[in-house]
Design brief:
Distance between the termini: 50 Å
Radius of gyration: 24 Å
Largest sheet: 5 strands, mixed
Order of helices and strands: HEEEEEEHEEHEHHHEEH
CATH architecture of the largest domain: 3-Layer(aba) Sandwich
CATH superfamily of the largest domain: Glutaredoxin
CATH class of the largest domain: Alpha Beta
Helix content: 40-55%
C-alpha cells in the first residue's frame, strides 16, 4: 500500500515538473517571438505539433505559424503529414474558422427555397464573380434545399452598386438568379433601401477569413471555397447532414 502511494506521489510530481517545463517553454517562445516580431502582436496560443521540436503559434484568432523550442526561427506555410497525406495546417485553420451556421445574421441575407427546402446551404457571392455564375448554373439542378445568400461585394465598386440594386429589389432571389444564370440586366431600384447589410456582410466575411467567392458553408460548419458542380454539392450536403 505504501509503495503504491509513493508511486502515485512520484507520478504526480513528474506531471507537475512536465507541466512547469511546458509553461517555461511557452513563456520563452512568447517572449522571443513578440520581441523580435512585434507585428504579430499578442500570441493567442502556443502548442506542440506532431513534428518533434516544432511548435504552433496562433495569432489574431486564426493565423497559424510555426517555430522552434526557443523561438529563434519562424516558419510560414503548411505542415504536412506525409504518411497520411494530410495538410495539417489546412485542417487546423479549417477548424479555427469553422462557422456555426445557427449564429449567422440571416437578416442580412436573402433566401431561395427549392422543393421541400429540407437541406440548408449558406453562400457568399459577388455579382461580378464569373466562378459564382458557373456555380449558380450548377445550383439550379439541386433540389430540396434552402439557400441563404449573403451578397459579398469584394471585387470592386461596381460589385457594390450591383449588390445594392439586388438587395433593394422587390424579389431579390428572382433578380439575383436572372442576372447570374440568364444574364438579365439588374433593374435599377425605383427607391434605394437601407444597404448597410452589405457592409456588415463584408465585415462578417473578413472575420471568418472568407477571401474569395463563391464560398459555400454547410450545416456542420465546413466550407468550400470556389465553384463546385452539382454532384459535389449533393455529396457535401449529404455529408454535412449525416
Amino acid at each position: 500500500m505504501k509503495t503504491a502511494t509513493m508511486r502515485r506521489f512520484g507520478l504526480a510530481l513528474l506531471a507537475l515538473a512536465v507541466s512547469a517545463a511546458c509553461l517555461a517553454q511557452e513563456a520563452t517562445i512568447r517572449k522571443n517571438i513578440t520581441q523580435r516580431f512585434p507585428e504579430l502582436k499578442a500570441i493567442d496560443e502556443v502548442s506542440k505539433t506532431g513534428m518533434p521540436g516544432v511548435y504552433e503559434i496562433r495569432v489574431n484568432g486564426t493565423e497559424v505559424y510555426y517555430t522552434d523550442a526557443q523561438g529563434d526561427y519562424l516558419m510560414v506555410g503548411s505542415l504536412y503529414d506525409t504518411k497520411q497525406h494530410r495538410n495539417l495546417t489546412e485542417e487546423r485553420v479549417d477548424k479555427l474558422t469553422a462557422i456555426k451556421v445557427d449564429t449567422l445574421p440571416y437578416k442580412d441575407a436573402f433566401t431561395i427555397v427549392r422543393g421541400t427546402g429540407e437541406r440548408k446551404l449558406v453562400v457568399f457571392e459577388d455579382p461580378n464573380c464569373g466562378y459564382c455564375k458557373r456555380f449558380e448554373r450548377e445550383l439550379q439542378t439541386v433540389n430540396n434545399v434552402t439557400i441563404h445568400m449573403f451578397l459579398y461585394p469584394i471585387l470592386g465598386p461596381d460589385s457594390l452598386e450591383k449588390s445594392k440594386a439586388i438587395w433593394c429589389a422587390k424579389d431579390r432571389g428572382q433578380v439575383w438568379q436572372d442576372w447570374m444564370v440568364r444574364e438579365v440586366p439588374i433593374p435599377n431600384s425605383v427607391q434605394m433601401c437601407d444597404t448597410n447589410a452589405l457592409k456588415r456582410n463584408v465585415e462578417l466575411g473578413r472575420t471568418y477569413k472568407i477571401n474569395g467567392t463563391p464560398t459555400l458553408i454547410f450545416v456542420d460548419g465546413t466550407r468550400v471555397p470556389g465553384a463546385i458542380d452539382a454532384k459535389q454539392i449533393e455529396k457535401r450536403l449529404a455529408e454535412a447532414k449525416s
